Automatic annotation (TrEMBL):
PANTHER family: 3-HYDROXY-3-METHYLGLUTARYL COENZYME A SYNTHASE, HYDROXYMETHYLGLUTARYL-COA SYNTHASE. Residues 2-170 form the Hydroxymethylglutaryl-coenzyme A synthase N-terminal domain. It holds the Pfam family HMG_CoA_synt_C. Keywords: Transferase. GO terms for molecular function: hydroxymethylglutaryl-CoA synthase activity. Residues 174-257, 268-361 form the Hydroxymethylglutaryl-coenzyme A synthase C-terminal domain. It comes from Sandaracinus amylolyticus. This is Hydroxymethylglutaryl-CoA synthase.
Amino acid sequence: MQSIGIDAMAIAVPEGYLELRDLAEARGVPPAKYVDGLGVVRMAVAAPHEDPVALAADAVRRVLDLGEIDPSTIGLCIVGTETAVDHSKPIAAYLHRLAGLPDRCRVYEAKHACFGGTAGLMTAVDWIASGSARGRKALVVCSDIARYGVKSAGEPTQGAGAVAMIISTNPRLVALEPGVTGSFARDVDDFWRPLYSKDAVVDGKHSVQCYLDALIGAYEAYVEAAREAGIDPDAVVRRCYHVPYGKMARKAHRALLAHRGHTEDEADARFADDVGSSLHFSAEIGNVYTGSLYLALASMLEAEARVLEGERIGLFSYGSGCCAEMFAGRVQQGAAAIVEKLALGAPLASRRALTIPEYEAIRAADAEIDRRPPSEPPVASVAARRVAFTGVEAERRLYHG
Ligand code: CAA
């Protein structure tokens, strides 16, 4: 039987980031609350020219280039996002030009809070498994700017970034298990973003409980699906979770292991081995909403693909509102060499620390853009190699690059 899964991946991040110790100091909060209490270290801050289209395009160009993928082989492009730039035109339509995708390509956007990327991934896998792909590959992109109110409780759990993935037969990185997934859905008001607002509204403590309830619901559904397929649901050597902030992954691991009869101490003792390597990137970037689970997977592969070759990894995706899914994949033999070529962590090397006044000026500029779309480029200089949002002319969004 042909295998289907993630053949290549790449990430993109804004050029600026904030040290969360600096933010804690500015907000009069003990830094230990952010670093130890929430498990966050730095958060990426997107400048106005680094909108979700620009971030997505950067990630897609990297995955096509470093993954040595011919764009003409792509037949489906789905962008998962909860920070779309338009109520109608999808980010995928902008990517079609910016990434040089072929005319014979289905392009669209998927929305369900942080679950949109997983919805795209599942559709891509099923599209290939059904035969509709006819040998073509799918491009699944997750791109978001996680934004809460300045000085709100959610402020230290912001971030921004994109993850692009090529889905194909005989994948070089991770083979997934088509049809063997566990879904869970419920109508809850834990986190949402009204049409009139760029900042999310969140019932923080309730959102944590909704996440944990959905985790157990998806796990139970996954156990049933895996057993029907003759797969041991717990035969995984690592787990990647949706990571709104590092501590949430620890809470998730505790809850899952408690559900399986383990104590909190046992879960904590296993956490570094089971989950730890998936958190390196998110500690640098923060929450990237739809891309969060896949950023965790990229982080884990970057850190230890060689030891994971041939092993199964458990994956858990959560989108507020809510919809969740648990599934698993096997890291392919030879994945470590591909991971090296893809230079997954390289975009983190060329960033700049922002001061608190710079960060607050970016947030103020964002609010102004909402009131009055700029007809001039929102930045004085745009780095030549990057795709950048440069303003609105005759109601049309313009991109450099
Ligand atoms: N030293 C060490 N730890 C400290 C501390 C100190 N000085 N002060 C507080 N802490 C600890 C607290 O004990 C607490 O730990 P536990 O959670 O283990 O109990 C932790 O720091 C956080 O403290 P609070 O609970 O007081 O934090 P808060 O009320 O300021 O808000 C939050 C935390 C609710 C997560 C808030 O940041 C928030 O609303 N974030 C956005 C929503 C979110 O990320 N929800 C996650 C689930 S929903 C989801 O996953 C979808 C998505 O992507 C948004």
